[in-house]
Carbohydrate kinase FGGY C-terminal domain-containing protein (Pyrodinium bahamense), 148 residues
Amino acid sequence: AAYPALQREAEAKSLRPSEVLDARVEALAAQRGLPHHALLSAGVFVGPDFSGNRSPLADPRMRGSVVGLGPVGPPEEATSIDALAVLYLAAVQALAYSTRAIVEAINAARLQCQGSAVEPIRAVVACGGLARRGLYISEHADALGVPV
């Protein structure tokens, strides 16, 4: 399985597993000649509402999903750190697009309440540990279309 190997690699490099995955995503994109790392997750979809949706739908019955898993080569490749990196990227993208849905709902509610004079959200400020995660921040900036 990939996660024990990921843990060993992270410990050997004195990194967090997410830092190893961030680097692996970039390396895989370069290795495959992709113009942007976001294209690595083509065909893989993560619906992130594993514990229901809190915002903007507030539906506790919603459930998460992972679609597009399957063999892409020899069995050892399907359980590799590279395969885990692609799934990780798809999960980060899912969170970014969930954030986009929240921002769009906020913008729509503000427009409805305040009329056309209201400005849409033009930037998002990240804080805490995730603010140091380059892949997380770049995927959110791309999905939101605003600086993060």
Observations:
- Residues 81-114 form the longest helix (34 residues).
- Helices lie at 2-12, 17-31, 75-78, 81-114, 134-144.
